[in-house]
């Protein structure tokens, strides 16, 4: 059995990653568009109307994927930032910076769609439900990360300071989540259960397809963004002049 | 070394007494504004008292975060301290201890008096003090991370609020939870135990993160 060894470190260098990302972006963009078309078709035309909530439940198809991405991207961002800090890998830190914006956007989308869904389902735009509150706090954590990095001019210091903040936030996320949950039971504010309806298979598949679409979208956008960051930071490097020319 | 760093910070704080008092008066003024804004009904005031006292304590302790490392950073003392063979963890812990003694303990002492303004009973006031005693060290410990990260930045004061306030949320929830549990007559103990658990966690991890942040900022 022969094992071909792939040199993973090769693509840790921005000079090698830049063209690779450029080749990957069109693929992920096409997949994103296809998955969104299929997922939205299934979601709007195939999935049946919910007998309790009517048509308004269809917000779930964008709300749940966005909420998942918002949470998952935070973890991914912290991991990349930690890798960049621990191994002094510039690309890791650049990835973290690129992910932060996408994660914040997804968290924002999940908050907005959540409150738009809350109006028909619960009668109010906002309840201090444990999930919504912790998503709001997640949004604050993203804002903290982005504004810390934005206010440091030296990019090396910005990378590392962001890494410390992201990792501290990562340790705090479960603590915040449980504290908010207990706080909610203490106040007995929202006794609504949004997940009370059973999902038809077509509903579930629409949600999963759109989940995959959001994934592909995130990859495409993060790669495009990281290319911008590479161009900005490595503008003095000779390889970049060749790659762009 | 540990004692020396704390003692030095305490002396420095004593020489700038006005700064310390300003934080304390901020705390008093903010808590007194709430009855003026909401109305003097005793029932309402008792309900909001735990939240008001804790939120005001959060904001007041945040105001003084810049002083933990700020002056030492500007005159170069901080760099020299980090160059000493002593572990940065202990130096951070000493400075956090001094910050807690200077900026938080006065709040804890004055809090029962403010609680009287809100018509809290003696029993409740005791829990206010205990919960603040357990919670305020966490505020100093976590706040030090934010203070270290924003050293020497433009608009560091506003930035520190953005970074630190979301991390304060569990302390706020458990602290007010303990007080509300006394008001409602349900068990206070679990809330205080949770606060204690957070204190232990913060005690172990926060100075470590702070010293990492200091090394990044001083470099």
Short note summarizing the structure:
The complex is a heterodimer of chains A (about 240) and B (about 220). Chain A is mostly helical and about 240 residues long. Chain A has helices spanning about 15-45, 60-85, 90-120, 130-150, 155-185, 200-235, 240-245.
Architecture blueprint of SSEs:
The complex is a heterodimer of chains A (245) and B (219).
Chain A: H1 14-46, H2 60-86, H3 90-122, H4 130-150, H5 155-187, H6 201-233, H7 238-244
Helix pairs in contact in A: 1-6, 2-3, 2-5, 2-6, 3-4, 3-5, 3-6, 4-5
Chain B: H1 2-15, H2 17-38, H3 42-63, H4 66-74, H5 77-83, H6 88-117, H7 122-149, H8 156-184, H9 189-218
Q: What is the count of β-strands of chain B? A: 0
* Radius of gyration of chain A (Å): 21 Å
Fraction of residues in H or I helices of chain A: over 70%
Query: Stretches of chain B where pLDDT falls below 50 for ≥5 residues?
Result: none
- Number of folding domains of chain A? 1
Structural class of chain A: mainly alpha
Order of helices and strands of chain B: HHHHHHHHH
Quaternary: heterodimer
What's the average pLDDT of chain A? 85
Number of helices of chain A: 7
Q: Residue share in helices of chain B? A: over 70%
Strand content of chain A: under 5%
User: Percent of residues of chain B in beta strands?
Assistant: under 5%
Q: How would you portray this structure in words?
A:
The complex is a heterodimer of chains A (245) and B (219). Chain A is an all-alpha fold and 245 residues long. Chain A has 7 helices and no strands. In chain A, α2 (60-86) packs parallel to α6 (201-233) and α3 (90-122) runs antiparallel to α6 (201-233). Chain B has 219 residues and is mainly alpha-helical. Chain B has one domain. At the A-B interface, α4 and α5 of A face α8 and α9 of B.
Structure keywords:
heterodimer; A: 245 residues; 7 helices; 0% strand; B: 219 residues; mainly alpha; 87% helix; globular
């Amino acid at each position: 059995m022969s094992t071909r060894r792939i040199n993973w470190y090769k693509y840790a260098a921005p000079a090698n990653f830049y063209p690779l990302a450029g080749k990957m972006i069109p693929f992920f963009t096409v997949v994103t568009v296809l998955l969104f078309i299929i997922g939205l078709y299934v979601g709007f035309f195939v999935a049946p109307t919910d007998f309790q909530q009517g048509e308004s439940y269809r917000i779930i198809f964008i709300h749940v994927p966005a909420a998942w991405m918002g949470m998952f991207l935070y973890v991914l961002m912290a991991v990349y930032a930690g890798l960049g800090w621990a191994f002094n890998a510039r690309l890791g830190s650049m990835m973290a910076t690129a992910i932060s914006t996408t994660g914040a956007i997804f968290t924002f989308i999940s908050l907005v769609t959540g409150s738009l869904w809350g109006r028909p389902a619960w009668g109010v735009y906002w309840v201090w439900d444990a999930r919504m509150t912790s998503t709001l706090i997640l949004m604050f954590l993203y804002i903290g990360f982005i504004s810390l990095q934005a206010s440091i001019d030296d990019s090396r210091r910005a990378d590392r300071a962001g890494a410390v903040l992201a990792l501290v936030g990562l340790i705090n996320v479960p603590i915040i989540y449980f504290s908010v949950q207990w706080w909610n039971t203490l106040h007995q504010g929202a006794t609504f259960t949004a997940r009370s309806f059973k999902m038809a298979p077509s509903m579930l598949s629409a949600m999963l397809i759109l989940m995959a679409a959001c994934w592909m979208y995130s990859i495409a956008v993060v790669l495009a963004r990281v290319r911008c960051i590479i161009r900005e930071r490595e503008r003095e490097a000779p390889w970049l002049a060749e790659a762009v020319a | 070394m540990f004692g020396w760093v704390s003692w030095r910070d305490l002396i420095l704080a004593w020489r700038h007494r006005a700064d310390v008092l300003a934080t304390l008066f901020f705390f008093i003024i903010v808590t007194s504004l709430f009855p003026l804004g909401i109305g003097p009904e005793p029932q309402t005031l008792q309900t909001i008292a735990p939240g008001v006292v804790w939120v005001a304590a959060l904001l007041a302790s945040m105001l003084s975060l810049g002083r933990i490392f700020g002056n030492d950073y500007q005159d170069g003392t901080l760099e020299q301290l980090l160059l000493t063979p002593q572990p940065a963890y202990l130096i951070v812990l000493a400075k956090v201890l001094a910050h807690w003694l200077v900026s938080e303990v006065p709040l804890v002492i004055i809090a029962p008096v403010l609680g009287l303004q809100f018509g809290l009973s003696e029993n409740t006031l005791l829990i206010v003090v205990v919960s603040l005693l357990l919670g305020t060290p966490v505020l100093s410990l976590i706040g030090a991370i934010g203070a270290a990260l924003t050293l020497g930045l433009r608009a560091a004061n506003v930035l520190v609020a953005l970074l630190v306030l979301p991390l304060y949320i569990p302390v706020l929830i458990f602290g007010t939870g303990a007080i509300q549990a006394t008001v409602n007559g349900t068990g206070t103990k679990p809330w205080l135990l949770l606060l204690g658990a957070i204190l232990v966690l913060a005690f172990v991890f926060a100075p470590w993160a702070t010293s990492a942040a200091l090394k990044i900022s001083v470099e």
